[in-house]
Amino acid sequence: MGNEILKIALPNKGRLSQKIYELLNQAGLNLDLKDERCLKLDTKDKKFQLIFVRAADIPNFLDSKVADIGFTGKDIIVEKEIELDIVKEFSFGKCDMVVALPEELNIDDVSQLGDNIRVATSFPNIAKRYFEKLGKNAKVSEIMGAVEITPSLGFCDVIIDITSSGTTLKSNRLKIIDKILSSSTVLCARKDLEKDKQIKLRSLIRAIDSVIDAKAKKYLMAHIPKDKLEEVEKFLPGLSSPTVIPLHDNNDKVVIHVVVDEDKVFDAIDNLKQIDGEGILILSVDQMVR
User: Fold this and answer.
1) What is the CATH number of the domain that holds 244?
2) For a pLDDT cut of 70, what percent of the chain falls above it?
3) Which of 173-177, 200-204, 235-239 is least confident?
4) Do residues 50 and 24 touch, judged by C-beta distance below 8 A?
5) Which of 163, 196, 214 is the last residue of a domain?
6) Which residues contact 87 (CB under 8 A, 6 or more apart)?
7) Domain for residue 1, yes or no?
8) Which CATH number covers residue 27?
C-alpha cells in the first residue's frame, strides 16, 4: 500500500459534521479532539487527513483534487453537476427536495403554475432543469439561506428547498406541491482516484460498515445447561451459530458467546432464564467485521 495520505473532506460544522467525525473515530482513525477553528487534521498514523469545508463546496474540492473523498449530501452532488463516484449511501441526513408555495394560493400541483414563475432556491441548477423539463419559463434566484421566508416578502412565487420533516415549511405557511428528489448523506470519491488510495478507501468503508453493523447488535454471554444447547441454538443462532466453551469445573454446563440483534435482547434473556441460564452478560459491540 502506498504512503500517500487519503484526504477526506467533510462538513465543517453542524450535527452532520459531528456525526461523521464520531463515525470515523469509531472506525479506528484515531483522531484527536477537534478544535472548532481547526480546518485540517491528520490522523496520528498519518494515513488520513481530514479537511473541514462547507458541505456545498465538497464536490468542488474533489473535482480540483484538493481532496480524494468526501461526505456530503446527494442533493449537493446533483446540484453541482460534477462527476463523482458515490461509493456509499448512509441512512442519516435524509431529506427531500420539494417545490413549495404559500398555503393561501389555490394551487395544488405544478401543472397549475403559469409561466414567468419567480423561484427562490439554494439549488439553481436543479431548479432550472426542473422547470425546463416542465416546459415553463422560470426566473431562478439563488438564495443561500432562509429560503422559506422569501415568498412572504414578495421575493418569489415558489421555492425549491430541502426538508426533513416539513415543520419549517409549515411554520412559514408553505405547502408542498411536488417532490423533486430524495437525498441522504453519501461518501463520494473523485473518478480518477489512484490505485493505492482506492485500497485505503475500501479499507475505510469496511471499517465504517463494521461500526454501523455493530450499532444494532449486542454481545451476549451466558452459562447454560449442556443438554439445552440445541434448544438455545434455535432462538440464539448468532451470526452463524453460538460459540460454545466448556466450563473448567462443571461438566453439566457450558458458556455460550453470541451476537444478537439489539431488539431481541429482552426475549433472549427471557428464553435463557426459562432453561436455567445464569451469569448472563450483555456487552456493547464497537465493531463487527464480517
Assistant:
1) 3.30.70.120
2) 96
3) 235-239
4) yes
5) 214
6) 69, 187, 188, 189, 201, 205
7) no
8) 3.40.190.10
Q: What is the pLDDT of residue 1?
A: 45
For residue 76, the model assigns a pLDDT of: 96
Q: Do 179 and 197 share a structural domain?
A: no
Q: pLDDT of 24-69, one tens digit each?
A: 999 988 776 666 677 888 888 888 999 999 999 999 999 999 999 9
Query: 83-108 pLDDT, tens per residue?
Result: 999 999 999 999 999 999 999 999 99
Which single residue is written with the C-alpha cell 482513525? 29
**What is the C-alpha separation between 121 and 158, in angstroms, rounded?**
9
Q: Would you say the C-alpha torsion 137, 101, 91, 17 has a positive or negative sign?
A: positive
Containing structural domain, residue 177: 95-183
- Examine the domain organization and report whether 11 and 88 are in the same domain: yes
pTM reported for the whole predicted model: 0.83
Dihedral (Cα; 208, 212, 213, 215), 10-degree rounding: 140
Asked whether residue 88 falls in the same domain as residue 188, the answer is yes
pLDDT at 95: 95
